[in-house]
Amino acid sequence: MSNPMSDTDIQIQRPMRADARRNYEKLVAAARDVFTELGGSAPLEDVAERAGVGIGTLYRHFPTRQALLEAVYVGEVETIARAADDLSGEAPWDALEQWLRQYAGFAATKRALTEALLEAAPDSDVLLSCRAAFVNAGTPLVERAQQAGAVRPDTDFSDIIRMVGSVSVVPTTDPEQKERMLQIVLDGLRYRGS
User: Fold this and answer.
1) What string of DSSP letters covers the chain?
2) What is the DSSP string of 8-23?
3) What is the distance between the alpha carbons of residues 194 and 8, in angstroms, rounded to a whole number?
4) How confident is the model at residue 14 (pLDDT cuts 50, 70, 90)?
5) Model confidence pLDDT, tens digit, residues 28-61
6) Per residue in 56-85, pLDDT tens?
7) Based on CB atoms within 10 Å of each CB, which residue in 82, 97, 155, 173 is the most buried?
8) Could you read off the pLDDT of 113-138 as tens digits, one per residue?
């Protein structure tokens, strides 16, 4: 007998109990911190311990490392995408600058997560869908700032996100150096008419 559900059907999941939801959120937050500090191959026991739950609770929510990595990554992307919407009422340059600064903070953790996701499942479409979410969130901010005359017209979202991402992963322990470098990138984006 064939499966009556196609790939496009919506799969219905039961809502989580309040305690299960809290544990899920604690595990994702702990995993984000542990993976940022130790990389995507950090022991899952460390994640459970930091979340204050047992390893069995971790595996009930995330049966594989891949599932946990994806949950952390998707959660971070959703936060960045929501931030773009939240900033839509700000002045065009201010909105873009604030969003890029938030992205810079995420980019530092993104690298370890991306590498771990690619290693675990290189054909996963999570990375592709997350990339699309970034582009869909950031492109309107760039275009709005360009239309307002605040950002150079000879650049695009792809250029900007690569520069900011590169600054974010520079191997240095000096946060002030990263801030100076980010400020140089932001200053270079500002349009200064002749």
Assistant:
1) ---S--TTSPPP-PPPPHHHHHHHHHHHHHHHHHHHHH-TTS-HHHHHHHHTS-HHHHHHH-SSHHHHHHHHHHHHHHHHHHHHHHTTTS-HHHHHHHHHHHHHHHHHHHHHHHHHHHHH-TT-SHHHHHHHHHHHHHHHHHHHHHHTT-B-TT--HHHHHHHHHHHHT-S-S-HHHHHHHHHHHHHHHB----
2) TSPPP-PPPPHHHHHH
3) 53
4) low
5) 999 988 988 888 888 999 999 999 999 999 999 9
6) 999 999 999 889 999 998 998 999 999 999
7) 97
8) 777 777 777 677 888 888 899 899 99
Distance of alpha carbon 32 from alpha carbon 6, whole angstroms? 33
Minimal CA–CA distance to 140: which of 85, 187, 192? Answer: 85
Hey, what are 182's tokens? 């980010």
Please give the torsion angle defined by the CA atoms of residues 51, 45, 42 and 76, in that order, rounded to the nearest 10 degrees: -30
Q: How many CA atoms lie within 13 A of 11 on its CB side?
A: 5
pLDDT of 9 over the 70 cut: no
Q: Domain ranges in the chain?
A: 89-189
